[in-house]
Amino acid sequence: MLCTVQNIGIVSSRAPIVDRPAGARYVYLTFEGLRESRTIADKHTRVRIALPMTEVARLREQLAEQDRKDTVDIVI
């Protein structure tokens, strides 16, 4: 049985909240914004992601790599 994945678009004008309680093995990322949906009446949405510390380092590497690619692609 295949499960469907719901893709939720959120428009946010503020930075995500990053929280790591003392001694925790997870970093919590919280994104708040307005949900992009025509069928939802209350569009205010909060998404909280628990990211294991091992994945935080990987995410940092991926963001740095993306930043390097964006810098190299700029032509003046």
Cα-based radius of gyration, to the nearest Å: 16 Å
Low-confidence stretches: none
Helix content: 25-40%
Q: Mind describing the biggest β-sheet?
A: 4 strands, antiparallel
Write the layout of secondary structure elements.
Blueprint: E1 10-11, E2 17-19, E3 26-35, E4 44-52, H1 53-73
Antiparallel strand pairs: 1-3, 2-3, 3-4
Structure overview:
- Strands 1, 2, 3 and 4 form a four-stranded antiparallel β-sheet that branches.
- 28% of the residues lie in helices and 32% in strands.
- The model has no long low-confidence stretch (mean pLDDT 84).
- The chain has one helix spanning 53-73, and strands at 10-11, 17-19, 26-35, 44-52.
- It has 76 residues and is an alpha+beta fold.
- It contains one helix and four strands.
- The protein has one domain.
Short recap of the structure:
The protein is α+β, with helices and mostly antiparallel strands. The chain contains 1 helix and 4 strands. Helices cover 28% and strands 32% of the residues.
Overview features:
76 residues, alpha+beta, 4-stranded antiparallel beta sheet, 32% strand, extended
